[in-house]
Design brief:
single chain; about 170 residues; six-stranded mixed β-sheet
């Protein structure tokens, strides 16, 4: 079965309050514009999530809710994972093992530097020095279940971010 994984870095966050904890930083105005726009780009590309998994940090929660809204995904079904907050790449793989076999398209919303490191392991044909805020990387792979992800041949088909030039 063809499966799709979309990795999204949270949208641009606010540094307006220097005393605020990193975990509690909200999106800034640009982030609140970019997140629904990137969800709209997923819709235009025909990508509809079967599952959204997100870090529980405030900026990722906001990003996840915007992406869900733009893609028609029920926000109350988002799977919240505290361990995605500034995680290492192996945590992403651990989460993939837990995804049910009926899920065809999964979106994971998380943070740098782990997300950049993880997407650079998706395919030998893809590399980015830095996953931009609200950037998306998508990969297709053939597998019976998500637990087959590590050994599956993956093809990166999507790399998009808010300031990427689009034909419009």
């Amino acid at each position: 079965m063809k499966r799709t994984l979309i990795m999204i870095r949270h949208a641009k966050s606010s540094w307006a309050n220097p005393l605020q904890s990193d975990f509690d930083r909200p999106l800034n105005d640009r982030g609140m514009r970019d997140a629904p726009e990137m969800g709209n780009r997923l819709m235009k590309a025909g990508i509809r999530p079967s599952l959204i998994i997100s870090s529980t940090a405030k900026r990722t929660v906001q990003t996840a809710n915007f992406i869900a809204g733009a893609t028609g995904y029920d926000a109350s079904s988002i799977k919240w994972e505290e361990k995605l907050y500034h995680c290492i790449p192996s945590v992403f793989e651990e989460l993939l093992y837990e995804i049910g076999d009926t899920v065809k398209t999964a979106i994971i919303i998380a943070h740098n530097p782990g997300i950049t490191e993880f997407v650079n392991q998706l395919s030998p044909d893809f590399f980015t020095g830095n996953m931009p805020t609200c950037g998306m990387v998508g990969a297709h792979f053939e597998a019976d279940g998500w637990e087959d992800f590590p050994l599956a041949k993956r093809k990166v088909f999507l790399f998009d971010y808010p300031r990427n030039e689009h034909d419009s």
